[in-house]
């Protein structure tokens, strides 16, 4: 993928990531920014939230639905069984995913030519090249596949000068303490509720590095070549973030070419398991031009292959064993208050993030999903009992990494299908692998948790005799005469499809 101009906004940048760390490369010339993220950097205001007892309202809600009073029933269900957030105008208790900061490279190369910004999916390397004066410049960026560092390499034909600094968006609820010493600079951050993190960068060069004038967290570089190693750490497991940053940087010491080779070999070990080709590729044409031409109706099936390959790249960059499940934006976010908290949405978003993983031969990238599902079981059991007086588990539509299965969204969260939909992934992974140990240890136990819930939740329709879910919804759907923002009902088709799928898999697994 390549473009002839720098990104004009964050979402047009090139993403790099290794599951734990993520960066969005914007590729500016006079001011280049890499927006930084760490998968565990979430606000921690609601880590211990709980759900109250509300199942006592369920009989009346069902009575109203069966009497045909759909709007009244939906209103009562929304009031008693959902959370306060979302379209109600009240802030929910889902903690937002936070930006770690920005790595910024500043030059005086305003006059330049031959600009090219590129993302090599096969090597997982982003780059920017241009000519300023008589000097040819190239910057290379990657999140190392096996080391917890981001690597930025600066190279020119002749020595150049640049300021390299770290910064973070202005945030009244986060205290930063910055420093620069020798060839190292960084900052420590602490949110009001106590969550701490650190970002540290180290410059490796044969040139000169001096303190930058007028900035605390910055260095001035004069060199022909330099490598910037950057690490981020968060105290979610009671570690000291700054000490962990330095340990990670120490472990990554080495020549740039060696670090790059190690990274590319590890990435290609995953990326090259699948090869997809559609039509004749035309890499000599900029990607945005090809997309615009495609939208106008021209045939370019190779763009669709490129898009699928980009999807494979994003899965590899976002999800690795031992890490967190992908959030709404993968692992990339520059905002303090991102859309929907950049949370974990379980009514389709988590699911569709992972649909292609097994088909692309990336089964290990599903490990964070299995961990996420299992992390929520204890709280899911409490929620199932408190909300619906059922065995098994209830999982909400939206959540964060803290493992708290609490409904937080007004109306939307009166829905019991999230756990059943997640269970599909476990079963399908078994179908891809035929791994009997995985079936026994991870698939079947969760399928039975969800099946136990529906054995208790399903009730017989008073006139039809069917077993139905009530209250029910087709996620994010509305109909005339129903409640707002979603319409609640008896036995939505999506519920019945998910339950049939779940129980069929339980029987087959047994």
Q: What attributes characterize this protein structure?
A:
510 residues; alpha+beta; 14-stranded antiparallel β-sheet; two-stranded antiparallel sheet; 12 helices
How would you describe this protein?
The protein has helices spanning 58-66, 70-81, 241-251, 256-271, 287-295, 301-318, 349-354, 367-375, 377-388, 418-433, 436-457, 493-509; strands spanning 2-3, 14-17, 21-25, 31-38, 101-106, 113-120, 125-132, 135-143, 150-167, 174-181, 184-191, 196-205, 208-211, 218-234, 344-345, 398-399, 459-460, 467-468. It has 510 residues and is an alpha+beta fold. It contains 12 helices and 18 strands. The strands form 3 sheets. Strands 1, 2, 3, 4, 5, 6, 7, 8, 9, 10, 11, 12, 13 and 14 form a 14-stranded antiparallel beta sheet that branches.
Summary, kept brief:
This protein is an alpha+beta fold. The chain contains 12 helices and 18 strands.
The rounded distance between the terminal residues' Cα atoms is 47 Å
Instruction: Provide mean pLDDT, rounded.
Output: 96
> Which residues form runs of ≥5 with pLDDT under 50?
none
Discrete helix count = 12
Number of strands: 18
Rg, please? 25 Å
Indicate the proportion of strand residues: 15-25%
Helix percent band: 25-40%
Order of helices and strands: EEEEHHEEEEEEEEEEHHHHEHHHEHHEEH
Largest sheet: 14 strands, antiparallel
Shape: elongated
As an assembly, this protein is: single chain
Structural class: alpha+beta
